Amino acid sequence: MKITVAVATPLHIAASSGVVKIAEVMVDKNPHLPNVYDAMKPSPVLVAVAHKRRDMASFLFSNTNFEALNSYEQIELLSATISSDYYDIALDILTKKPELAMARPAVFGTRL
């Protein structure tokens, strides 16, 4: 289930801070939070990856419904994890959806 909102959620702020304990408390209270974001803004897990918050990214990825992300968001997350040297998360993404290895974003070549 993906819910959209007009502004960054508190989980986005926690994701950028990298304080996993805050995110854990929030997600324990509402397990749907990792999938609550505006379609014009990145998902919380992508925010964590973009801010180089490895532990937060791992936590959020394990709590995000990956299949609820659209194909573009999945490719962006794969690209960001590879660019950030988060190969463990990138491997998890490719395990869930191997065809992303051959996906071609409009600007770039294939990810692998």
UniProtKB/TrEMBL annotation:
InterPro entries found in the cross-reference section: Ankyrin_rpt-contain_sf
Top-level taxonomic group: Eukaryota
Protein name: Uncharacterized protein LOC103489087
Species annotation: Cucumis melo (Muskmelon)
Gene name of this polypeptide: LOC103489087
